[in-house]
Design a protein that fits this description.
Layout lengths: L38 E2 L9 H11 L5 H4 L16 H26 L11 H12 L18 H5 L6 H8 L1 H34 L11 H17 L5 H30 L10 H10 L1 H5 L1 H4 L6 H6 L6 H29 L17 H32 L9 E2 L8 E2 L1 H17 L3 H31 L3 H22 L8 H30 L4 H9 L4 E10 L9 H9 L1 E13 L4 E2 L1 H4 E5 L5 E8 L10 H16 L5 H16 L1 E5 L12 H17 L23
Subcellular location: Cell membrane; Membrane
GO molecular function: potassium ion transmembrane transporter activity
Protein name: Potassium transporter
Length: 725
């Protein structure tokens, strides 16, 4: 067996297997009490100065708000309007204004951004936050509390007692499963949003070629849109910071130019448009149109599309920068742009199918077209970045197969990129454009995604208010009634469009949810087996007492993630190999939500009471370079192991053990990881057979190279762990 250390790999290029373990690694291996683990804190935290926030706010234009600020391209064309009147347009504008104000400003910018989970946003971040604070589910112990967000004192102050609702989730498995299903559905819908936003944004912008050039066919527009999207996805590997730096000037130009055109249109066509801000125009709209008006909500909801990215992209920036950019730039820009569009359509009621380009003055048509096309490309970035974020959260929480996640910044933990996810999104986006090229069909599908994700976020935020923030019941009721009713009406309207393209996100979400559930199911069965059959020190002592089991020369790193014991794979390993190395170090990797872990706290070793047997926990941050196959790593562990042994009472055997450590390193170093596989017994149910087989497919094709990071394939001794039904 080749025992040379493998090549180095940077930690940000992988997903650590131990992040999926159930709880802290070794119950008998602990850190010093009474103080926090000494971690190197990030240099770019939430308490950045005013100028840093202004710079970040500028960068958010190129990442966070693209989908939201370009929605005027497709909102009116997505509506099924039939001979609309002045009163109809005033009612529609009033609906859009109050939707932007209540959902955009109040719900997302003012409330949702405060419900982050250690700097991360999105539906799965809310789920993780709830699980950890209620101590339910396998994610409750995933992250230690040493990295609690210091910007949320309210959360710490109000967690002394548990609410009745929190106790219900702790005692009811049905409630926990319902919460998990809700979070999974929201995550899948957001990923669906990441597919549809690029498609509809770029297609709507490129459609502007057809008016000045009648010879340009619909097929040509679709092909050009597909080419533009492919180029955009190929740029993702450069990272959010670099992409946002390139894209922010484009979005700045768009955000400034469209409201200026809107102001011109208001003055030229309908100066009294802002009287529609009165809510009574909404009441009159529905009284006059009834069912027809309700159905038109399926297009109106698109005015707030991309708002979920405002929350999900939180990990890429910070709360202050996003709030600043939205309230002072994006929100007034949208209000003026929609006002200008509506003012034009009141005087030209039959131009609603091309409601954006028609209201652009001829003198600035081409500059606006160029800016619109570039802005549509940027708009795609917001949901692509959000998709990377939620995939990364799901992988870390072990609810999604392990895909490669690359941290593209050493300063911001939330800036991630996944090559596999990126190319899958690209294929789906191009397919949506080429197969469903009709803008109205994609708009119908888009409306389903937008409304359902917002409704799920409202439900999870309500739980956060009740269980974690302990908000007064009156305020919780006010929040829930307003937003659940408002978004519920939107959902009821868009569900009527299922047959007209609305089925697309449901198909995508069903596939994703099935993958997530299959992975979750298999991991749960694996954890159940490991916890039931874990090995303690007495069992290990008995195994080693067998005369046929030899202690062979060499140093062995045995990777495990079981708490309060050792993985049952160890017994299969010893019985199969009939040996254990003279120095065996059971190693667990522990993920920390900080850039770097201080060197003195990175590796903690304790002796397990048997000759040459140690437990080791390796803490690492997202920007740490970790080479588990290199000489530096092995030497550092040896140093810590010697220090650990030297603290014991001195006797000849212990002195000899210390002196043998470096000799065993010279003899050879191997890295052992047990690979899980399931045994399907005769009594296994058909459901278990199918789900476990599906998990095996996901595990074998999507697993990462760790824990044997950097070790060549021939050096990994893979031992099967059987699940006996």
């Amino acid at each position: 067996m080749d025992r040379q250390p493998g090549p180095a790999h940077a930690l940000p290029d992988v997903v650590i297997d131990s992040a999926s373990g159930n709880g802290h690694p070794f119950n008998y291996l602990h850190f010093p009490q009474g103080r926090s683990t000494n971690l190197v804190q990030p240099t770019d935290n939430k308490e950045t100065g005013r100028w840093s926030n202004l710079l970040l706010a500028y960068k958010t234009l190129g990442v966070v708000f693209g989908g939201l600020v370009t929605s005027p391209l497709y909102v009116y064309p997505s509506m099924h309007l039939n001979s609309p009147t002045e009163e109809d347009y005033l009612g529609i504008y009033s609906i859009m204004f109050w939707t932007l104000t209540l959902i955009g400003v109040v719900k997302y910018a003012s409330i949702a951004l405060k419900a982050d989970d250690q700097g991360e946003g999105g539906t799965f971040a809310l789920y993780s936050l709830l699980c950890r604070k209620m101590n339910i589910g396998i994610v409750s112990l995933k992250h230690s509390d040493i990295n609690s967000n210091q910007s949320r004192p309210v959360l710490r102050e109000n967690t002394r007692g548990k609410s009745r609702l929190g106790k219900l989730f702790e005692t009811s498995i049905v409630a926990r499963r319902a919460l998990l299903f809700t979070a999974m559905l929201g995550t899948c819908m957001l990923i669906g949003d990441g597919i549809l936003t690029p498609a509809i944004s770029v297609l709507s912008a490129m459609d502007g070629l057809r008016d000045p050039f009648p010879s340009v066919t619909k097929s040509l527009v679709e092909t050009l849109s597909a080419v533009v999207l492919v180029i955009l996805f190929l740029l993702q590997k450069f990272g959010t910071s670099r992409v946002s730096f390139m894209f922010s000037p484009i979005m700045g130009a768009w955000t400034l130019s469209t409201p200026l055109v809107g102001i011109y249109s208001i003055i030229h066509h309908y100066p009294s448009i802002f009287k529609a801000l009165s809510p009574h125009y909404i009441v009159h709209f529905f009284l006059r149109n009834r069912k027809k008006g309700w159905l038109m909500l399926g297009g109106t909801i698109l005015c707030i599309t991309g708002s979920e990215a405002l929350f999900a992209d939180l990990g890429h920036f910070n709360r202050s920068s996003i709030q600043m950019a939205f309230i002072f730039t994006i929100y007034p820009s949208l209000v003026l742009t929609y006002a200008g569009q509506t003012a034009y359509l009141i005087k030209n009621p039959n131009d609603h199918m091309d409601g954006f380009y028609k209201f652009i003055p001829k003198t600035v048509y081409w500059p606006i077209f160029i800016i619109a096309t570039l802005a549509a490309i940027v708009a795609s970035q917001s949901l692509i970045s959000a998709t990377f974020s939620v995939i990364k959260q799901s992988v870390v929480l072990d609810y999604f197969p392990r895909v490669k996640v690359v941290h593209t910044s050493s300063k911001k933990e939330g800036e991630v990129y996944s090559p596999e996810v990126n190319y899958i999104l690209m294929v789906f986006c191009v397919a949506v454009i080429l197969i469903f090229g009709d803008g109205q069909d994609i708009g119908n599908a888009f409306g389903v995604v937008v409304s359902l994700v917002m409704l799920i976020t409202t439900i999870l935020l309500t739980l956060v208010m009740i269980i974690i923030w302990r908000t007064p019941p009156l305020l919780v009721a006010l929040y829930f009634i307003v937003f659940f009713t408002m978004e519920g009406v939107y959902v009821s309207a868009v569900l009527t469009k299922i047959s007209e393209g609305g089925w697309i996100p449901f198909a995508i979400s069903f596939i994703l949810a099935f993958i997530m559930f299959g992975w979750y199911y298999g991991r749960q069965r694996k954890i159940e087996y490991e916890l039931t059959h874990k090995i303690d020190l007495e069992r290990l002592r008995m195994l080693l007492s067998d005369p046929e089991v030899q202690r062979v020369p060499g140093l062995c790193f045995f990777y495990t993630n079981i708490q309060d014991g050792m993985t049952p794979i160890l017994e299969h390993y010893i019985k199969s190999m009939r040996s254990l190395h003279k120095v065996t170090i059971f190693t667990t990797l522990r993920y920390s939500l900080v850039p770097k872990v201080a060197p003195e706290e990175r590796i903690v070793v304790e002796k397990l009471g048997l000759q040459g047997v140690y437990a080791c926990v390796i803490q690492y941050g997202y920007a740490d370079f970790l080479n588990l196959g290199g000489d530096d790593f092995v030497s550092e562990v040896i140093d810590r192991t010697e220090n650990c042994s030297s603290r014991l009472p001195c006797d000849p055997s212990q002195v000899q053990e210390i002196s043998e450590l470096r000799q065993e390193k010279i003899a050879g170093v191997i890295h052992v990881r047990g690979r899980t596989r399931f045994y399907i017994g005769k009594n296994t149910s058909l459901f278990d057979r199918f789900m476990l087989a599906f998990y095996e497919v996901l595990h074998n094709n999507c697993r990462s190279a760790l824990p044997a990071l950097g070790v060549p394939l021939q050096q990994r001794l893979e031992v099967g762990m059987f699940y006996k039904a």
